[in-house]
Every structure is written in C-alpha cells, then in structure tokens.
Amino acid sequence: MSRRVVILGAGPAGLAAAQAALARGAEVTVLDEGERAGGQFWRHHDGLTDPRMQHQWSRFERLRGALQRARVHEQASVWHVEADGGLRVHAHIGPADSTDRAALTVDADALVIATGAHDRALPVPGWTLPGVVTAGAAQALAKRDGVTPGRRTVVAGAGPFLLPVAASIGLAGGTVAEVVEAVGRAAIMRGWGRAPWQLAGSAGKAGELAEYVGDLLRHRTPYRFGSAVTRIHGDRAVEAVTVQRIDADWRPIPGTERTIECDSVALGHGFTPRLEAAIQAGCAISPERFVAVDDRQATNVPGVFAAGEVTGIAGADAALAEGAVAGFVAAGGALGDPRLRRILDARRRMHAFAERLATHAIRPGWTAWLDDDTIVCRCESVTRARIAEYADASSRGMRLATRAGLGACQGRTCGRSVEALVAASVDYDHRPVLSSIRIGELAGLHDHRTPHQEQE
C-alpha cells in the first residue's frame, strides 16, 4: 500500500519533495498558500514575468510537470497541524479574503514541512512611509507583476539577496539609485574567501554572481559596503534616505551621513524561517531557531520531515537537494539508496556555501539608529520607547501592555526586532491558529476526519 505524503509548501524544497515522493510511488498532496507553485524563487505570472529574472526555469518546469500526478491545492491556508495519534492537516482553500473558502482535512502517513522563510527588514526611522517595501516584496512585484516599487529605488540591508533584487528592479524598468550592504568589504572577503575549495562545486552560484555584478556595472549602480540606511525622509511618501557608514557591530558612525534622493526603498536584512507549522507539530527547534533535522531530513516527531529554508537559510539549490531527500525518505526510501548519491553530494556542497551566509548576520548595534519614536511594530504603531517601557515585564505582559506583535502579521514582521530590543525571547512563533481564519469558518467545520475531501 502506497504511503500518503502531505507536503506543506510548493517552493523549491516542496516541489523537489513531491517529485521524489511520487517517484517512490507515494500518494502525494501538496498544500501551498500561493496562487501558483514556485515559491519566491520561481515566483511568476504568465505573460508578465521577464524570463531573464528566472534561474533554472527548465528545472522548475520539470518539477511542476511532476505535480500532475499529485493532489495540489493552491491558495491553501493551513491553520492547524495535528501530530498526536496520527498526522492530520487542516486548511481552507481559496483567496485569503474570500468568504466562501472550502475546508479541507488531510490525513497523512508522513508530512514534509517546506514552509520556507520570509525576508526580514529591520526598522528604520521613516520606514512606515509609502514607498518602503521589503526586498522580497520588491522582487515579487518585479517577477509576478512586472512593476517596481518606485521609479528610483535604494536597495539596502545585508546579504547576497540584495543582488537579484536590484537586478529584478532594473529588468522591470526601474532605476536602482544605490545598493547598500551593511557588512564591510574586508569582512566579506574574510567570510567568503576562507577555504575556497569548499565552494568548488558551486559554479552555478559563481555564474549568477558574475551576472549580477555585470548588471550593476552596466547600469553604473553604486554598491556601498559597510553602510546602512539609517533614516528615510518624506512628507507623504519617500523622498530621500540617509545612508551612513556603520562599524563592525552595525553602529552608525557620526559624521558619515549622505543623502540619496529616491522615491522607494527596498529593505532586506536576511530571512526568518516560518516555524509555526513545525512548532505546532512538536518539532524540536535548534538554538539558531531553525527546525532540527537529521541526515534524512527527519525531525524528532515520527513521520515528520522538514526541508528548505525552514531548516537553515541556504538558498534554492540546497532546498532542492533537501526536499528531494525528505520526499524520498518520507515515501519509504532509504538514505543509502544509490539514487540519492548525487543529491546528497549536492546537499553537502550547498551547505558549505550556506555557511558563508553567516558573514551577513545581523549585528546588535543596529538598534542605535532608532529614535524613541521610531515605530517598531507597524501593525499596532508601537514605538521603541513604548517597548523599552515594558522591557522588564514578562513576555506576555509586554505583549499585552504594548500590543507589539498582536496585529495582523502576528509578529512575523516585528517579532525578532522586538526581541532584540528587550533582549529576551518573546515567543512569537507559537500560534494555536497558524493563519487567519474567520469565526464562521471555524463554526462551520464538521467531519474533520475525512481524508482528501473538501468539506463545504
């Protein structure tokens, strides 16, 4: 009897898991909250997406083609995962703002969590002005809709992701005024230059880097190291930014301020894994706050596997390899199967690449560029001063008193920043309901145990 494998997420990790599980003869169900498969890496829209923004597109088409043999539910909001007494996933299918979404409950023999990560943007004075977006949002606008956040954009933050974001904005017809990288040139050379032989198998990444650097040179786009956007100016919308040199701890250096005129800003300071489903399933979380897995991509919960950015930020190639391992083993395969040899080699190479990403990790000095009246929680308009007032309260007390993280995003945007300001864990990742769901939808649920059946 074939195993029932449920996969949460249809980005690179989820798609690779589905293909591998199907190849093992499993009965596969894929649940993805997006309008179409691909995740952020292969975000697209037929007729609008510039093909030059996509990498490994032929591989995506092969993976998408494999889904024809699976049950695929797009625009699926998973709101509850059960792992006691069997694996069961509850979701609602349809646009998030729809009033007639269909309820779906799926029973599984194995669950692959490939929920990925969302990009993190550190708060900056003025970041609530219209025209400020996350770096991921800027790329999504370019890839999916063929538009830019503005005519002249400053891309700022830390990490290699700034490069494809800048390239996407340019291909969509916008101008990148400047790319601002928080890590200094010397630190980048030390971090990426050590043990270069470990990166010998990452030729594809080197090719992408050369492409992005060539794009910056063609457009004469300045790339500033060791700097940050420390203030965003404007009356009703973005008009300019202050770019300032920062030290190795990311503290602004007085007297180094420059003003750059622009009408939009794309901020990206790394990524935050989407842990909610894994935590609800009972998966152990590592000290670095990723889902802990073994060589089989298995978590501590029997039958539950995890792959992709939720287990560590390592890029699409690592996610593809991890997803293939997770899907193959979840479907009953063994890690020693010869068919996994090349995949395991690829995973090892890409993990070596991922270790260098720590070079761009957020440093604690960033809080020095905030004013007391800088809004940290955008949903509830909670300022830094308000958070500091309750910094010594309990996690629950701080949240209730300030309402930081209790708005629509439930701390997904501000949670890690709030924790940095109070120097304590506020535990925004534990949610009894994983996604927004109407009271009427909860009240209308019945017969949850019917597998693979939508309940009206």
Describe the structure in brief.
Helices cover 29% and strands 21% of the residues.
Description:
By secondary structure, the chain is of the alpha/beta class. The protein has 3 domains: 4-118 and 272-335, FAD/NAD(P)-binding domain; 121-269, FAD/NAD(P)-binding domain (3-Layer(bba) Sandwich), CATH 3.50.50; 370-422. It contains 13 helices and 21 strands. The chain has helices spanning 12-23, 57-66, 135-145, 162-171, 185-193, 203-218, 276-280, 316-330, 341-355, 384-389, 395-402, 415-422, 439-443; strands at residues 4-8, 27-31, 71-73, 76-82, 87-93, 102-108, 110-113, 117-119, 132-134, 152-157, 175-181, 223-224, 227-233, 240-245, 258-261, 264-268, 271-273, 304-306, 375-377, 382-383, 453-455. Strands 3-2-1-7-18 form a 5-stranded parallel β-sheet, covered by helices on one side. A 5-stranded parallel β-sheet has the order 9-16-10-11-12. A 4-stranded antiparallel β-sheet has the order 4-5-6-21. Strand 4 and strand 5 form a beta hairpin. Helix 1 (12-23) runs parallel beside helix 8 (316-330) and helix 4 packs across helix 6. It is globular, with a radius of gyration of 22 Å.
